[in-house]
Amino acid sequence: MAIGHxxxxxxxxxxxxxxxxxxxYDERFGQHRPLAYGQVYSTLSRLxxxxxxxxxxxxxxxxxxxxxxxxxxAGVTDVERWLGTPEKPEPYLQNTLYSKVVLALLSGRxxxxxxxxxxSAHLGTMRELTRRKADGDLADQLICDFALFHLEADLRxxxxxxxxxxxxxAEVGK
Amino acid sequence: MAIGHxxxxxxxxxxxxxxxxxxxYDERFGQHRPLAYGQVYSTLSRLxxxxxxxxxxxxxxxxxxxxxxxxxxAGVTDVERWLGTPEKPEPYLQNTLYSKVVLALLSGRxxxxxxxxxxSAHLGTMRELTRRKADGDLADQLICDFALFHLEADLRxxxxxxxxxxxxxAEVGK
DNA sequence: AGCACTATACACACCGTGTATACACCCGAT
DNA sequence: ATCGGGTGTATACACGGTGTGTATAGTGCT
Lengths: 174, 174
Fold this sequence. Notes:
2 copies of one chain form a homodimer.
Chain A: H1 2-11, E1 16-17, H2 18-28, H3 37-49, E2 53-59, E3 66-71, H4 73-84, H5 90-93, H6 96-106, H7 111-134, H8 138-173
Helix pairs in contact in A: 1-3, 2-3, 6-7, 7-8
The first copy, chain A, binds a DNA duplex through residues 1, 3-4, 17-20, 36-43, 45-46, 62-67.
């Protein structure tokens, strides 16, 4: 629900219509992948259904109609709760890389290859992010650093796992 | 598609029915959150639709009917491609934490609180994982280490961001 | 009769993508 | 001068993947 909450947060600054929200979102959060228009409206309709936003009039000004949406009290409460609640690190436990290694071992394929492919891909990504970070503003730098820290974490895990492959193979084989 | 691929991988060991797959999955990959039955069958039906598995007979043995599924050649090819393709680190760029901090700053709330809440939750999770890691087998240890490395990465980012909050606030305010 | 276990099916909700639609405005070609 | 096409604004809708919850149905045990 991160995107829904982000849109709600933007609506706290005043009522807006969908197209406008998309641009505001891209400017603030979408540096690395702009929001699709479709997603804006489907998200808005869900927020509307759940009573977190309300329609605030239809302007038929220059160009096509604009449906303005305003955040409701329930919406503000929801943003507040979202900001006050820590993100759960479940995704870190649902580890696709680990699944790949185990399946490679189970099926007699090379688990080392799996690790190597991932490592070299990550190293390439890190070079690119380091470049992007160099000529970005502080916001860009923070986003890149976040990704870089996590890529480093992946690399540490890849090394650790590579060093334990024999023992893991024995354990999986049982 | 991680779960679909994991099920395909398990089917490489021979045809199985859904209930059996669920248990095999939980044993190998589901330590930290067992697979819901519903998901097994909906995933299987998608694999069937895409021709990656095929029905391999219905046994009406003890108890209810069992539909056995076998992996197809297309399925094996698909597993192979999955194992040979590195995972994209996009999720690290779509950073919910960053969104929270920016929205807190935009709405005049305390971004420090957001960071603090997340940090103390992470520290608690890390203590728990360290405990779990101590009395697990190698597979558990690797899973816990993966999560721990990423939690550390989050913590590093939280510290970095906390130290830059004033500058970020100025940049966002523009 | 009630409960637990095995096994599947189905309806539903969320999230995201792609495509169609509609209006307005500008600009060049006829 | 006007016709048509491209561009920008704005929304709606249908669809696909993913995951959850619930219903169903048979078997065996107590």
